[in-house]
Each structure stands twice: as C-alpha cells, then as structure tokens.
Write a structure and sequence with these properties.
- The complex is a heterodimer of chains A (about 800) and B (about 60).
- Residues about 310-315 of chain A have low confidence and may be disordered.
- In chain A, a hairpin with an 8-residue loop joins β8 (about 300-310) and β9 (about 320-325).
- Helix content of chain A is about 50%, strand content about 20%.
- Chain A has 28 helices and 29 strands.
- Chain B has about 60 residues and is mainly α.
- Chain B has a domain at about 1-40.
- Helices cover about 50% and strands about 0% of the residues of chain B.
- Chain B has helices at about 1-25, 35-40.
- The radius of gyration of chain B is 21 Å and the shape is elongated.
- Classes of the chains: A alpha+beta (about 800), B mainly alpha (about 60).
- At the A-B interface, α3, β5 and α5 of A face α1 of B.
Chain lengths: ~800, ~60
C-alpha cells in the first residue's frame, strides 16, 4: 500500500491522490496533504521532511478558522498589530522551525517567534498588507491549529512572581558566591592564623555582601515571618528568618569584638530557600502549561440561523435566510442554531431538522452515541458526530445541563480545604522547641554566673545552628525529581501539595467510559457463518466504508488492510442499516429488525450456532450493539460493536490492589453494561446510572467515612467528583473541565499509569519525609555545642554542607524503578 | 599586600559585573524560553537576516 508523502498515513490505491511535483511522482492521501506538500516546497522548505523526527503530521483537515475568537488578543504595536497565538499540533523542533519560516515569508508579517516551551507564537504584522484571518489560515494550511491565547490575570501575576523570584534568587546566589571566597579565607585564618586587620577587612566585606542577600533577596521571607508572627503561627518563614537574622545580628556583634562571624550561614540559608522555591515554581509551571495546551479552548460561538419556515408547502423544510456567527451568550431560547459534524453543540435545545448522532458520553457516561432526529433533545457541550442538524434553543446560560455541572464543580472547589505541608507541620513543633532550648541556655549560663551578654550570645548561637538551611530544598528537590520522572512517563502532577495529598490515598474510584473503556465504539468481535471471519469482515467493509455512522466507522477501522469489493445500488436506512449489491448479490448489514423487516426469510436464531447465540445475548445484555450481515440468501456474519475495555484495565486494577488500595467503579452508564465490564476486570463495587452530582456525593460519602479517595475520570460528568476526591486524575483525552479539576493528568491512554502515579507519589512523599529528617539531623546533633558555647562557624558550615548533600542525594531516588 | 588588595578588588569587580550581566539577562527576557536555543542552534540559517524582523520575499501571496 502506498504511503502519503506528507502525513505518512497508508493510502489505498483507489483513493490516493497522485501528483507530479518537479518531475517526481508523489502520493498523497488527500488533496489537503497534496496542497500542503506543494506549499512547503514552493516556499523552499522541503527540508522539513528531512528534519522531522518524532512527529508525522496528521491528514489535513479542511476547517475554516474562526477569527472572532482571536479578536480579543490583538494589540497595537506602533503602526503594526501584534498578537499571541497558541499553535496546536507542535510536536518537535522542526514544527516550530516550519511555522516560523512560513509566517516570516508571508508578506506583511514582520515578526514571528514561537516559544519552544509554551508553543506560543508572537506574531507582528502590518495591517495594511495582511489581516489576522489570512495569517491564521496560513498556519492552518500547513496542518497546525491556531488557538487564541487569552492571558488570564493569574497567569500574568504568576509570570511576574517567577520573574521576581528569579531576580532575588540570582542576586542571592551571586553575592553568596562572592561571600564564600572570603569565608574560606577566614576558615583558613582560624587554623593558620590571620592578621587582625585583614580579618576585620574580610569581616566587613562579608557584612557588605550579606546585607543585600538578607534584606533584598530575603525580604519576602522576612515579610512572611512577620505575617506569621502576627497570626501567632510558626511557619517555615519564621524559622528561616529567625535563623538568618540571628546569625546576622550575632555576626555583627562578633565583628565588633573581633570574634567569629556567621555571615555565610545567614546568606546560604536564604539562597538555598530561594533555590528551593524557584525549583518548585518551575515544576508546577511546567505541568500547568502542558495541561493548558491540552485544553480545547473551543470558540464560544454558535451559527445562528434567521429562517423562514415554508408553511404553505407540503414539506416543512426550513428556508435559511441568513447564517451568522454569534457569541453563545447572545443566544436566546427559541433561536435556531446549526451544528455541522465535528462541532460542539453550544447550548441545550430540540432538533428541528436533520439526523445525526451525538456523543454524550462526556455528559452522561453512556458510551453509545445517541441518535438524534427531529424532536430529540440535544445538550450543550456534547459532540455532533456525523450529520448537520438545526435545533431550536430551549435553555441557555445557567439553565443548561453543562452549566449546572460547572456550578456543582465550583461548589465542591469552594469546600476544599487547603492542606498544610509536612515541612510546615514539623516546623510548627520545631520553632517553639528551639525557642525553649535557647531560653534554657540563656538561663543556664546566667545561673552559672556568666555575664548577661555572654549568656545572650550563647542563646542566640542556638538559634543560629538550629535553623536547617537544607529544609528549603528538602521538599522542592524531591518534588522536582518526582514530578519530572512522572512527566517523562506521561503523568502530569499539578504541584507539590498534590504529592503530599496523594500519599494518603487508600481508595480508588474509576469512571467507566473513557477511563476503563476506550470511550468510543470499536469492533470487538467478528464472526463469519459459513464463510471465514475475514470474508465476512470484507463484505461488511465494502458497504460500511460508504457510511458515516459511528458503528460503520468501527467496522472500517477494524478491517484496515482488507480490500473492499465493488458495491452497486448502495442505500442506507437511517438508524437501521445499509444495503447494496456485490457481484450481483444482495448484501444487507444492520440490526436484527432491519434484516427481518426486509422480508427476508431467514430464521436468525436457527442460522446461528447455539454457543454463538449465547454470546450474542450476553453481549447485548452488556450494552454492546450486535450487527448482522446478510449475503447471498443467508445470514453470513455477526459483528459485536461495543465500547471496548482498555487492554491493560485488568492489570491496572490488580496493580492497584497489590498496592493495598480498594477499587470501585462508578458510571453514568446502565447497570448491565457496568457490571459486565466490572466483572471482566475484577472490580466488585459498582455504582451505575449515577448523575454527575451523585458521583460527587458518593465520593464525599467515602471521604466522610475516613477514606482518602483517588477518582479517575475524563468526562464533564466526572468533574464534580474529581474535585470532591482527595486526588482527581484526568485521563489524557479528557474534557477541559475535567483537566481543570484534576490534580493529576495522565497523558497517554494507559490505565496502568494510575497505579504508577500512586506508587510514585507515595514514594516521593516518603522521600520528602526522609529529606526533612536529614535537613534537621546534622543541625540537631550540633545544638549541644551551641548550648555549651563552643560553636564555631566551621561546624555550622559543615552541618549545612552535610545536610544539603544528604537531601540532594536522597532526592535523586524519587523515581520509579 | 598590595597584590592581595588588587585581587580582592578584581574578584569583587568580576562578581559585580557578573551580577549586572545576570540582571540584564533576566530583564531582556533571556530566561523566558530556556528550551528553544538548544534546538535553534541546529538550524542551518542560510538566510539569517530573516529573524531581523524583515520579510525578504514572498513567492506566494
């Protein structure tokens, strides 16, 4: 079979598009790919085909670009216009190269730059020469999808914060590096002797270098500590600020009396804390950026029709007077809206004309596409699969089913309590303990008859050494390594707090449709009667490839590689079946009723062997659709089409059980289907026909019983449950709402990643705890030295170095296998 | 003794210049895309001027 030269899909000889390009005969699967190939060549960019590595572009879709969604993001830049656009479909470096080159070679575009990390393109152009529509069409024409980038206020804020953090950390790092040079000289001076004046000079330089670290870089920490003290809580900031400031004050006093200084300790504590925060912010930012890219950002627009109905004629067809794109928010009940295949239905309504199937699984959990004809109800947020329909709006805005679910999500989010990190909990005990030890040291020295000043200094030195500077790294490092290891496997973890929460999970609830199953109809069984299975499939393929029906697509997909027969006299009976002639013999494919209603004297039950008959009854009970093939005067085949289980589902459940977790299934689908699936993969607890709100309530009930629930799902209908659970996991192809609600997003469609995610988070969490132990350990061991007044800067520096190394080394273990 | 003072001034000076360079780098957006450059350097730019905000030719409107 030939392979398309652009998208590298296999093309059947019959459908292939051949084209002579520069004397070479090229093969394409469609005219779209041919066009793109010519475009890329005409721009002199055919290097692209050599450069691309891991990605093959998909076949070109012929979709117009909806410009209005981009209008908000346009802004003037001098006499030119500038915008940010997310380019979807970018997989590797050569995609970026291609997009930039194509854009830059377009007349009127003066600047085009794509950010590798965010896939965001900044484009600037001259409005006199080109408009946004042409630019977007240009991106589209090479197979990528431009999406509007609407900066959210919090994103801007986040960017400003990370900028600020980088500046503060970088400054701290530069000054600390300088400081270290003089500290090492001072340590050497301690052992080998040092000129008094040089020592004073070095102390003064150290003081000058430490001051900006503490009061510029460390300002957010000091401010946080003040806030903590006002609220009478001992958070991490209080501990760090107390340690750094006491080291700083102690050192200034020592500088005057020509003692030993701890400026390096003060500066390093701040630097390492900031490093930890920078790492943590980065790990979090990367995950949310990737998830942001997964979201569809569907245009919030609808195609509204102004119509005149022909009431005088025999038919009640609608005559379209005007088609107009309007914002969804402007739709009112009674408006007529047209939806073409592949589009989302914007609001709830009743079908006025047209026949189609819609995928409502995201809303209801029902895996079978729902067939819609005149008078049927359609719901906002569901997908129109194969026919154009016009429907009359019944509910808009807050009244739609979708809006009610979003409301439930928001309610659940508002109830969510913030969690306190382990580090903060430990610090909460540690700070008072240190203060008491310092106080006892002070009183002890006074009691022994030491002067006031000396007792005071010893007490402060306890505070200095007690502050564990590796504490700032303990959590972020483990999280960084844990999350990047997870990301490499296709598990996106939204932040450090997720890891800490996930460690407590002891109960797993899985959604059925799209999580345990594939979420779309696939051919699960093909059985030939009197002919081979393959022959039966080939006959079916010949007819079904002409049909757009979702069940037909399942058969076509399953019979790739088979050569179809020539079909004549093809016709389809919507919702029932199709017929045609192959080599002069009639072929029918369809439901039991369809075959029998065609006046064909076939006794279906007699034609099927007893064991097969059982199977059919079983699979129909389990929610599968059974299709029959009639050919040459007899029943020739039976096809079972169902929402197939993911192959690895049973293994994933076993893995979860092995990890000591209970597993349950909850679904909006009916009980028969649910139980059949659950039985196959070994789940005993099944909750079927649950509405989105009931799902969330069920999770809440479990949480109230003291369980910590992990909920995995992908639909709009799972969103409230995802928020209600301790940890919500969204599967890769999930809806925007589910992605937004989830704590963990699984990028590959592999259910085994759920147990992987649990194992990894649990492991990372235990490493965080070990890290916190090691961060405190060395400092605690040397506290007695401070109590007895024999602490030296070298001991402090040693404790710092050892605890940091232990933490870094231990963090490296935060990966799977 | 003077050589030591000189060295101290040199180190502090070098560190300070490094810090200013860092400030400039952050301010001018060098850290905004830390993934890209490693790929961009692999592109053979036969027409490097293109990135200078100047479209050169247009073979197809």
């Amino acid at each position: 079979m030939p392979i398309c030269d652009h998208c590298q899909l296999e093309v059947s000889e019959k459908n292939a598009v051949y084209d002579d390009i520069n004397g070479r005969k090229q093969v394409f699967c469609c005219h779209g790919c041919d066009g793109i190939y010519r475009l890329i060549r005409s721009e002199g960019l055919e290097e692209f085909y050599a450069k691309r590595r891991e990605w093959t572009p998909g076949p070109a879709e012929d979709q117009s670009v909806d410009v209005s969604a981009f209008s908000e993001s346009l802004r003037p830049a001098g006499d030119q216009i500038e915008t940010d656009v997310i380019i979807d479909g970018i997989r590797c470096a050569s995609c970026i190269w291609l997009n930039e080159k194509i854009l830059l070679r377009t007349r009127g575009i003066s600047y085009a730059h794509v950010n590798y990390a965010t896939h965001r393109a900044k484009i600037r152009w001259d409005p006199a020469q080109i408009d946004i529509k042409t630019i977007l069409a240009r991106i589209r024409s090479i197979g990528y999808t431009p999406k509007p980038f609407l900066p959210k206020a919090w994103e801007d804020e986040q960017k400003k914060q990370s900028h600020d953090l980088l500046l503060r950390f970088g400054t701290a790092a530069f000054f600390s590096m300088q400081l270290m040079l003089f500290s090492v000289a001072l340590y050497a001076g301690y052992f080998q002797g040092i000129d008094e004046r040089i020592k004073l000079l070095f102390h003064t330089i150290s003081f000058a270098l430490t001051t900006p670290v503490l009061f510029y870089s460390g300002w957010p920490i000091i401010r946080g500590a003040l806030r903590g003290l006002i609220n009478l809580t001992f958070n991490m900031d209080v501990l760090i600020a107390a340690g750094a400031l006491s080291a700083y004050g102690y050192s200034i006093q020592q500088m005057i009396v020509n003692g030993e200084v701890y400026f390096d300790t003060a500066a390093m504590i701040i630097t390492l804390i900031l490093l930890g925060r920078y790492i943590e912010a980065g790990a979090k930012g990367r995950a949310s950026e990737t998830i942001g890219r997964l979201m569809q950002l569907s245009p919030k627009e609808a195609r509204k029709l102004a119509v005149t109905a022909d009431q005088t004629g025999m038919d009640n067809r609608l005559y379209v007077a005007l088609r107009q794109m309007v914002p969804v928010s402007s739709l009112r009940a009674g408006d007529l809206v047209e939806v073409v295949p592949g589009e989302k239905i914007p609001v709830d309504g009743l079908v006025v004309s047209g026949t189609t199937e819609t995928d409502e699984s995201m809303l209801t959990g029902e895996s079978k596409p729902a067939s819609k004809t005149e008078g049927a109800e359609v719901f906002g947020g569901t997908h129109n699969l194969y026919g154009s329909i016009v429907f009359r709006v019944t509910k808009t805005g807050k009244g739609t089913v979708l809006a009610q679910i979003i409301q439930a999500v928001e309610d659940a989010q508002a109830r969510r309590a913030p969690i306190q990190s382990v580090a903060d909990r430990v610090v909460g005990f540690f700070v008072p303990a240190v203060l008491i030890i310092a106080l006892l040291t002070f009183l002890g020295w006074l009691y022994q008859g030491a002067p006031m000043a000396r007792s005071m200094m010893n007490a402060v030195s306890v505070m200095v050494i007690a502050c564990p500077c590796a504490l700032g790294l303990a959590t972020p490092l483990a999280i960084l390594i844990g999350t990047s290891n997870a990301a490499a496997r296709g598990i996106l973890i939204k932040g450090g707090d997720v890891i800490e929460k996930a460690a407590s999970v002891d109960f797993v609830v899985l959604d059925k449709t799209g999580t345990i199953t594939e979420g779309k109809p696939v051919l699960s069984e093909a059985h030939g009667i009197g002919i081979s299975d393959e022959q039966a499939l080939r006959l079916a393929l010949s007819l079904e490839q002409r049909s757009e029906h979702s069940l037909a697509k399942a058969i076509v997909e399953a019979s790739q590689g088979l050569e179809p027969f020539e079909v004549t006299n093809f016709s389809a009976v919507p919702g029932r079946g199709i017929r045609g002639m192959i080599a002069g013999k009639e072929v029918l494919i369809g439901s039991r009723e369809f075959i029998q209603s065609e006046n064909i004297a076939v006794n279906l039950d007699a034609a099927i062997a007893a064991d097969q008959r059982w199977k059919i009854i079983e699979s129909e009970k389990a929610g599968a659709t059974v299709t029959f093939l009639y050919h040459d005067g007899d029943l020739r085949g039976v096809f079972t089409i169902s929402d197939r289980m993911r192959q690895e589902a049973a293994e994933a459940v076993t893995l979860l059980r092995k990890g000591g977790l209970s597993v349950a299934m909850v679904t909006g689908d009916n009980l028969n289907t649910a139980e059949a699936v659950a039985k196959k993969i070994g789940i005993e607890m099944v909750k079927a026909q649950f509405s989105p709100v009931e799902k969330a309530a069920e999770i809440q009930r479990l949480e109230h019983e003291g369980r910590h629930v992990l909920m995995a799902g992908d639909g709009i209908n799972d969103a409230p449950a995802l928020v209600a659970a301790t940890i919500g996991v969204a599967m890769g192809r999930a809806t925007d709402i589910a992605l937004e609600c989830a704590d963990i997003v699984i990028m590959r469609s592999d259910l085994r990643l759920v147990p992987d995610a649990v194992t990894l988070t649990k492991k990372t969490f235990s490493i965080i705890r070990q890290n916190i132990f090691w961060a405190f350990f060395y400092n605690l061991v040397v506290i007695p030295l401070a109590i007895f007044g024999i602490l030296h800067p070298i001991v402090a520096a040693g404790a710092m170095a050892f605890s940091s190394l232990s933490v870094v080394g231990n963090s490296l273990r935060a990966r799977l296998r | 003794m003077w050589s030591m003072f000189l060295l101290i001034i040199l180190t502090l000076g070098a560190g300070f210049v490094g810090w200013l360079f860092f400030l400039w780098a952050v301010k001018s957006g060098q850290y905004d895309d830390i993934e890209g450059p490693k790929y961009r350097m692999l592109d053979d730019e036969e027409d490097a001027k293109e990135d200078d905000h100047e479209p050169k030719k247009d073979s197809k409107a």
